[in-house]
Amino acid sequence: MGSIVFGAIMPHPPILVPEIGKGRIKEAEQSSRGLEEVARRINNSAPDTIIVITPHGEVGQASIPVYTGHVFEGNFGLFGAAKPVLSFKGDPELALAIIKDCDLATSCSETLLDHGALVPLYFPAAAGFKKQVLPVAIAFKPLAKLFEFGRSMAKTIARLNRNVAIIASSDMSHRLTQDAPGGYSPRGKVFDEKLVELVKNYNVKGILQFDPALADEAGQDALWSIAILLGALDGMSVKHEVLSYEGPFGVGYMVASFEPQ
Known about the structure:
Number of helices: 9
Radius of gyration: 17 Å
CATH architecture: 3-Layer(aba) Sandwich
Strand order of the largest sheet: 4-5-7-2-8-1-10-9
CATH class: Alpha Beta
Largest sheet: 8 strands, mixed
Number of strands: 10
Strand content: 25-35%
Shape: globular
CATH topology: Protocatechuate 4,5-dioxygenase, Chain B
Helix content: 25-40%
């Protein structure tokens, strides 16, 4: 029977891709090392498919877009690097089964990957991953609904006998410094510290009940994808670890791993 073989929280700043960040990656060395380590762990878990949950791209309102393509590709041309071009095989069989099994899911025909998917996928690909990927976008729904979608997705994965790694692509507060992309808010640091602590303690209830006003003030795009990941892991015994956290460019980056036992 298939199962979730690994879960990860990975940030998605293009500056952490070596061809883009170049010398500036030294300013985010903890995140760079964390991403390389979690990519190694993903590959060691030998997934048939990586599901990457992106808060960018074809974001939904009423339903969660599940990408049904046979091939996906993209590059970082918008960020000054036309190369590398990343290309992945899709998993349309799993995608269509998830859509069939869950009323909250809807089909998405997009094949161009946004940076919310590309940045996390860059690292396992660089470490040698060559199998299938399945992008899933978020929807602006209550976290409890997204958690239930994750649970439904795990049941479908088991039914189709897939071994799957799930990446929750997640940047945290965008308001940590005066020159941050979202402007400055002292609440940004409060949000990040609280979420890191909840993840360290694997406090699922605390994450699902996170103060929405604080999350909004922080300018985050982490909670939606993390809620889906936690739903997929629900009921499993999980070894969890926060590998790194920092906010060198005004945005919080957390790298965490979840290894079902």
